Known about the structure:
single chain; Alpha-D-Glucose-1,6-Bisphosphate, Chain A, domain 3; TATA-Binding Protein; 6-stranded mixed beta sheet; 5-stranded mixed beta sheet
Amino acid sequence: MRKYFGTDGIRRIANTELTPELVYKVAKAGAYVLAKHSDHAPTILIGRDTRISGTLIESAMTAGFLSYGANVKLLGVIPTPGVAYLTKKLKADASVVISASHNTYEFNGIKYFSNKGMKISDEIEEEIEEILESGNFDELTAHPNKIGVSEYREDLVDEYIYMLRKNFEENIEKNLKEDFCVALDVANGATYKVAENVFKKLGIKYKIINNSPDGININENCGSTHLENLKEFVKENHMDLGIAYDGDGDRCLAIDENGNEIDGDVLLAIFGEYLKEKGILKNNTIVATVMSNLGLNKFSKEHGITLKQTKVGDRYVLEEMLKNDYNLGGEQSGHIILLDYNPTGDGILTSLMLIQILLEKNVTTSMLCKTISKYPQVLINVKVNNDKKSLYLEDEEIKEEIKNIEKELKENGRVVIRASGTEPLIRVMLEGQDQKKIEQMASKLAKLIKLKLN
Length: 454
């Protein structure tokens, strides 16, 4: 089991667990591993979200890179997909996003991206950990005349904004209606300036909420993990569509005009059908995870689309997409990868694709969502002892309870249990035709797991 990296980089409470000292070491080790095959001083981009700890960690990260001899371009506050896009476009050697995504402000994290703008592999993360734990770490120090230099390049965000604009402006401008209006919830996070800039440039009418970050209100009762306020805002203001991003801007969830939630599975179905109609759904396949709703399986079969499922994590979705040349994939949580545009989940890009389809088809959002019927689903997060997270796989009583549930649900439901890669949680997910029944089953199983793993 890895000591530092989880399913989405390193994520801990800033300044106490994710200390400046640890960040400094992670930067030096990362620069070494990512650049050891290079014949030049590496250039590394750093972007961050709006957390109060962002500049602290940015400073420690920069010091680590410069100490090793890497040069740094500081992008400031920018969505994660913006960093990914710029890494590839500028041909940087690597990049880092300082963010804890959808978590509350006290957390922060480190996500490495390769020179191709993609999250680094498990193998590279493991290699970084080996360097951190090795006795040779102190040797990773540049000669005095090889120390790296840093520069502030917040202007580079304009390149990302231009990419979003150029890919959608012709189609959106052609079909845009005078009274079409979108509600934007930017979660007091990394999209708070960029999203508004993009929508203005595309001429899309909008009303924006949660766009006054103060360092501690990121994701606080807002954004893609707290949709309640956006649902009310959409209904009260008679909006055509509501869009919610998460703190670092790589997720997008939506709300229809009636206040109903549109999750990643629904977005994948809408996009899959649209791309297939256009003849550009590569290999006629959608890639999702094992957490995706059974309704997505049913939709795919009815529309003659192949559905491939991976373990949880957008990096594993992307790996499958790259391996077999697919261009659409994502997660129920709103990480949607449109590989023809950007090699990572991109909240703003996802919302623009949804708007383009809505305007082109000239239907209401609720009507567009009727393309897929979802099964009832229950998800319970069980707090457990972090050291015991993996033991649910071995406990005989837990395994027996899971078997009993699966036997009762048969082919009309399923059980998915997994340990969180970023928090001391076991996620219990049940799916079936009877909401009340699966709620009872999930509650019973969650109580057992809590009893056995604490």
